[in-house]
Write a sequence for this structure.
């Protein structure tokens, strides 16, 4: 089996991780493309003595950490002041190492040992970084969350997780039309949306309806993530795979809010 065939099944999930790190489908997919270009340019540098998925993420982390890689939509500027502004812009949007450790373990399912290998720290440091990220989440801004989910048990589970994290739930919609009505009635600061809804309508269409009215961060929930992580069309920036773990939902919500500036500060 060729290296490309070995890596292909893991690319959708690398896109998920990269999008979560950057808070953007466009920027996230650019980092993935840069990773693939680096592998094609120097295939002998790909680590062959480890699992292909681990090697792929390790190559990605090298691109992510490289100060020489500029995403395509980076603001252009000349002179020393312009270069400093570019550097500050990059640092401002950089996901901290603690959040990288949390996303790698909670969302991508790597063991602490594998996460340590990927971000080049000791395993004990990964555990400390994850604890640091979780502590940051406790201090994070509070959001008003709209849940779009037609399975009652799953909706209740999500609602419980959301409330336990200190967020408010504005409502639970089971159809496209109901989702838009609830969003307009009580504007949310975050939307959690299933893909397939009760009346055979689409959660994607429901979200499009909402985004046509106002901007809001969205996390999609699906049993078939690879269908929404192709990199070939407008796709979700944040995505949770069914069946999900509580820690995965927590990590996704915190990272979506990490890039959003419209949420209400948590009470002291």
């Amino acid at each position: 089996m060729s290296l490309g065939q070995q890596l292909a099944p893991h690319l959708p999930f690398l896109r998920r991780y990269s999008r979560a790190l950057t808070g953007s489908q466009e920027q996230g997919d650019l980092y993935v493309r840069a990773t693939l270009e680096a592998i094609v340019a120097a295939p002998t540098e790909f680590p062959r003595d480890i699992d292909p998925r681990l090697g792929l993420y390790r190559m990605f982390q090298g691109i992510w950490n490289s100060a020489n890689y500029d995403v395509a939509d980076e603001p252009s500027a000349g002179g020393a002041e312009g270069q400093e502004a570019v550097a500050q812009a990059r640092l401002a949007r950089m996901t901290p190492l603690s959040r990288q450790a949390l996303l790698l373990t909670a969302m991508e399912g790597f063991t602490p040992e594998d996460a340590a290998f990927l971000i080049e720290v000791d395993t004990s440091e990964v555990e400390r970084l994850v604890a640091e990220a979780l502590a940051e989440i406790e201090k994070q801004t509070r959001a008003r969350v709209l849940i779009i989910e037609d399975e009652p048990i799953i909706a209740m589970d999500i609602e419980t997780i959301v409330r336990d994290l200190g967020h408010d739930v504005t409502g639970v919609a089971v159809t496209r039309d109901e989702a838009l009505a609830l969003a307009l009635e009580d504007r949310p600061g975050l939307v959690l949306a299933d893909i397939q809804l009760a009346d055979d309508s689409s959660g994607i269409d429901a979200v499009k309806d909402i985004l046509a009215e106002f901007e809001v961060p969205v996390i999609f929930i699906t049993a078939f993530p690879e269908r929404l992580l192709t990199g070939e069309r407008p796709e979700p920036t944040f995505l949770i795979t069914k069946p999900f773990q509580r820690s995965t939902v927590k990590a996704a919500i915190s990272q979506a809010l990490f890039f959003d500036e419209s949420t209400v500060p948590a009470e002291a």
Strands lie at 144-148, 168-173, 190-194, 218-222, 238-241. The domain at 3-135 is CATH 1.20.140.160 (Butyryl-CoA Dehydrogenase, subunit A; domain 3). Residues 25-41 form the longest helix (17 residues).
